[in-house]
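Dear colleagues,

As part of the handover before I leave the project, I'm documenting each prediction I ran so the next person doesn't have to rerun anything. This entry is a single chain, and its sequence is reproduced below.
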Amino acid sequence: MESEQTSDSNESEQNELFEIVDGICWVSNWGLRNLRFSLSYQTRPDDLFIVTYPRSGTTWMQNIVYNLLTNGQPFNVSTIDFFERNPHLEIDGKKCIETMRRPGAIKTHLPMHRVPYNSLAKYICVIRNPKDVCISYYIFYNMWPDVPKLEFDRFFECFIEGYLPFGDYFEALRSAWQRRHYDNVLLVSYEEMQTESQSVIEKIANFINVVLNDQLLEKIMKYASFDYMKGKFDDERRKFEGKFIENIKMATIETDDDSSNEWSLLAQSYQDVFVPRFQPLYDTMAHYAIKKIQSNDTRDEYQLLDYGTGSGEPILTILQQLVTNHLYNVKLQATDSSRRMLSLAEERLHKLKSQHLTVNFFINDDSSNKNVYDIITTSLVLPYASNHGQMLRDFFQQLKPNGLLISSHWPHPKQVPFLSIIKRINQFMATGERIDTSHLESDVSFSCWSEEITRNIFIAEGYTIEQWITVDLPMSFPDIRTLLSFCRICEWFRNPSLYLVAEEEIRRILREDFHLELQSNRSFELPSKAIIVIASK
């Protein structure tokens, strides 16, 4: 019985880790556009593919091929050239593949039988022994910021079961092995590359029709060697292959009815970058909502609305605290102007699998309703409204007598440094000019409200302020790119050379304003504060 329960538990956990998309194991929030493009890509006769399972020698093979195609040019002479000649099929997507510099090689982690086939194209398959692949993939996998972290025992089970991003190692191995005799397929092992480097280079040169003389061979033996790459490639990969995760997230930004809504375009960035760092704020707001509900002496169903729910974290935090406190006599509703945000919220609600409570998500709130809600919550929304007075009046009208409005906002630009940095970077990249930070306090675009302004606005609309709470938000970032990824809809973010300009500018700001001397891959913290206002009708 115990083993059956364990098996059921593992199966349930598996279903929540990843999803199977067109037969490929995929991370749920990576998006589908680029993956589906890769499976239906119309190959060209001059295409050259490097087909590998993750951690099987992909980068090493890319460097050998690159050196052969560029007459022995080291990758670090022009890293932009290197990466633009080596796009990743299922990650970089249509635009990068169609505009790649040629001659080059298209990298893919799809199994060979799923890679679009053309008898005139060429395919280099690299395989590696499963033990080393498993250990290397485990380390690499847990460096990704947007996947469920796995201990090695659990990761090993997923590896054996073929339930990891990009699929089954053994299926990929079998698929490549079965095609080893095709005229346009070259099968190479990682172990061969280690022990018989010259022979492998000669085979590859012959396969892709490159004349290999002694001088070129000498360059490749040097510049495509493991030691040369290990010493120099890693730093460049951090700068450029950091786009690996960013591009798969960008693939979630697909056209829909509210594609013109910038907030909709920012949905995935907001979800990935900021929502986890705002959790103390959502926890505190939920705590006070729960206190209000617990004070209910009647058996009447409580009505709660979360306005501007975004990706759902505020309302789902309330739901989880209600379940923890066994409070089920509550009707939860949430609204947002972005369909993309609501879609994310509904997906997250589905994953919670709550048996006792659910949330009704809808696109627009009918502000004509009167005396409907016992509690309205709204997080980091009110100061951004074009007419915040009207929004407060609408809330007042919708609240029942003695109903509670729980609202949060930023108090002062200097107390939200991550926000000021993003604004300064965008300004700098758009105009080349730096913002005069002495004027931040008067910059209305920050939508910060001081205590005096807040009290005056609420009292003017008839509210009684019951509590005023300051919440500390540590805002830790694992690296500079994570903070900058909120700007991913900007053109410069997807241009490697311009991105480096932005990264250098943010390092300057962190150094001069925050006394943080950072490399791009170092973690840092930007302590911030938010205000929660609890007001009654």
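Confidence is low (pLDDT under 50) at residues 1-14, 239-267. The CA atoms of residues 468 and 509 lie 32 Å apart.

All the best with the project,
I.
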